[in-house]
Structure formats: C-alpha cells, structure tokens
Amino acid sequence: MSIETGMPDRGNHGQAVKTITLALQGGGAHGAFAWGVLDRLLDDGRLSIEGISATSAGAMNAAVLAYGLLQGGPPRARTALHDFWREVASSARLCSPFRKLPWESLFHNGYGLEYSPLYLMTDMMLRVLSPYQFNPFNFNPLRTVLARHIDFEALQRQCPIQLYLCATNVETGKIRVFTRDDISLKAVLASACLPFLFQAVEIDGQHYWDGGYVGNPAIFPLIYNCVSRDIVIVHINPIVRKGVPKSAAEILNRINEVSFNSSLIRELRAISFVTRLIQDGKISRGQMKEMLIHSIRSDQTMMALGVSSKLNADWDFLRHLRDQGREEAGRWLQQNFDAIGQRGTVDLHQEFH
Fold first, then answer.
1. What is the distance between the alpha carbons of residues 216 and 155, in angstroms, rounded to a whole number?
2. Bond before 131 cis per omega within 30 degrees
C-alpha cells in the first residue's frame, strides 16, 4: 500500500502487489535452487514478502535477502544473493575438500562427487573422526563469507521483514527459533551446523546443530506472527522418491530426505486438519486462521542429484540450480499467482495424509 496515495502498490505487470510469507528448506549446496526461486520472485515485482522462516542454507538465503532488502529493496536483494553464492563457490574452490579436481570432469560428468578421490577420502575420514578431532580450531569458511555479506547489527536494528531461523538444541533436542532480536552470525551458523562437519555452535550457554532435524523449516512462526495467510514453501528435499534405494549412498540420501522432511510434514498435516475443520464449519474462521499453502519444488531436478552433490559448491553447479529454481518459480507464478490470497494451491489432505 502506498503511503502517499493510499492506493495498492503495483508490481511490474501493473497488478496489485500481494503479500506472502516464505518457508525455505535447507539442503547444503542445493540451497542454490531456492536462490533461483527467490531471484525470480523478487524480479517479478508482484509479491511482497512479509516474513520468512528458514533453516540451514535456507537461513543463509533468508538473512542475505533481508539485508539486501534493507540496503536497497528487491534489486539490491537479488544482487546480494548472487554475490553471496558467488563467494561461496570461490571459498569452496580454495578451502573445501568436497570438490572435483580439475581433470576429473574429463572422466566423470554430472554434479555428483561419488567418483572424486578427494571426496571419498574425506568421507571416509568423517566416518571415524569428529569435527572436534579433525577440525580442533573449528575453521568454518562460511563464517567469513556471511560476515562479509551481512551487517548483522544493522539487520537487528531494522530488519525489513519478519525473520525466523531454526536450529536444533543439541542437549534437549528441541527447536530454537531465532527471531529478529536474536539474528546474528552465530544464529545463522547454528541453523546450518552439520554435526559431522562442524562443532556445535554455542549461543548463551546452549549448543546447536542444523535446524533441519527438528524444523525444516518451522511453519508455526509464520502462522502466529504474520498477517498474511499465504505461505509459499520452497522445497529442497524431495518428498517422494520412487524405488527402493540399494547402494549405501542412496540409502543415506533417502534417510536424510525423510528425516529432514518429517517435521515439515507433521506441521502440514496439522494445518490440513485445522483447514478441514474450518471448511466443514466445525470451528469458525474467527477462532482459527485458515492458512493458504503453496509449494515451489522440482522433485525431478532434486531426484537426479545424489547426496554428495549437496556438498558440491562448484559455481557451474550452483548456477544450474539457480536456473532450475528460476524456471520453477516462473512456472508457479504463471499457474498460481491469481490464487494467492484466495485459496491454497496444495491439496494438503491428498499429499500428506
């Protein structure tokens, strides 16, 4: 709404801007798919983001986007996301053991690292050594990248959106949702702390691991704290994967997908239950808010990628995922924009019951 005219704001297509909230999943380098989705939504101009709940790579995307919006609106947010992921790739090329050596691409195509000797040796080491043993000084290149791209003190003072970042309390197993006043470099690192790679992140005497174990991401902060009823979930982990995994890598990959989707599915089932009660007239809309759930995902893209590719931060791969995310978001906008504010575009009962 324009303060000067009192009329609805207009997007790039001359239509009234609609307000949504976003739920961003984590998934390592696969978070570049969500970067593409965000880039397309920001580019479209018909959507205003009221709040974001995010986990792991999603938390990084959310924090970078929020700071970009603070600096200069959607155009600056798009640039901020591009620059962040570009530096992630540059840092990985210098520091990460999870990468292909230059000549490996001549023998093995694709984005997986299953045939990389460097990856295989590191993977074997991680099975017997903890981060406290192989990384006693707790080196994390993401700490430097995030600090360079986000002024967290400025974000705390004047965050342009409601921001909720999810992490797992190591000792209690409960979810911790960091809100605007808690947003910090440590909070983002906590949300993205894979326990086999990094030491637990300590904040105020509590220790945290990746939020994906208990909230990938959590939906409830958007329900309780945001006005918009429209929640757009950007999926990174495939919900359905046909066939039974047979190799060790395939089994591990599917275990991760199931566990990192379980908390989200439970929340969506609860939302589905409440929605049916409202639609059947058993409770009034004044008692409960009917949420409108939307989903942007490409299971076909993600199912083609193995678990090792989540650790592949090669720039060509990240750009590929970005382009896939942009394409999927464009398709979603074309098919579902008119439904925003009117109805959900995901059949929760059919998908999650």
1. 23
2. no
Distance CA 287, CA 291 (A): 13
What is the SS3 assignment for 58-87? HHHHHHHHHHHHHHHHHHHHHHHHHHHHHH
Question: Does the model's pTM come out above 0.70?
Answer: yes
The three-state (H, E, C) secondary structure of 224-287, written as one string? HHCCCCEEEEECCCCCCCCCCCCCHHHHHHHHHHHHHHHHHHHHHHHHHHHHHHHHCCCCCCCC
Mean pLDDT, the chain cut into blocks of 10 residues (353 residues total):
35 75 95 98 97 98 98 97 97 77 58 71 82 90 96 96 97 96 96 94 97 94 96 92 85 85 91 86 80 94 86 93 97 97 91 73
Largest CA distance in the chain: 64
